Amino acid sequence: MTSATTFTQHTGEYTIDGAHSRIGFVARHAMVTKVRGSFNEFNGSFTVDGDEPSKSTAQITIETKSIDTRNADRDGHLRTNDFLAIEQYPQITFTSTEIAHTGDSGFDVTGDLTIKDVTKSVTIPFEFEGSAKDPYGNERVGFEGSTSIQRSDYGISFNAALETGGVLVSDKITLEFEISAIKNA
User: Fold this and answer.
1) Which CATH superfamily is domain 4-183 in?
2) pLDDT at position 149, please?
């Protein structure tokens, strides 16, 4: 996408294709490395207004039980009250409140992120990665973006001090979005 005129052709409603999308996160562990994970169950949709991007909208719902860091013990701990408390808070949600076109292919998507019943406004810079017609005749678009949050802002404050200084898990969490979506008929 190189101009607003080109973007107009993408006006419409889209459903996120969970099989070809990823919602992930990165946290620093023991102050020396990064642990990456993802949520394997989520759904969402967005509406693109190519003529007036500010009228576009987006929403997503993530199932907290689907957290996956490729380590069963760690995933089990992340599901407890120390972190996500999945029994009490089964979902994380994001609903856009403002979308601003920031260049040829950039968009700042600002919205309400709710984790553990705490809602904070966050802005996620996204890049439009392109569009294609898949072998089944579906019109697809792709977007990638990331932002950082402080997990303590959402009531997730569990930690352990390290003997050498620092803490076991960073407060800063980077959220990553790799979105493939299909245009609704």
Assistant:
1) Lipid/polyisoprenoid-binding, YceI-like (2.40.128.110)
2) 98
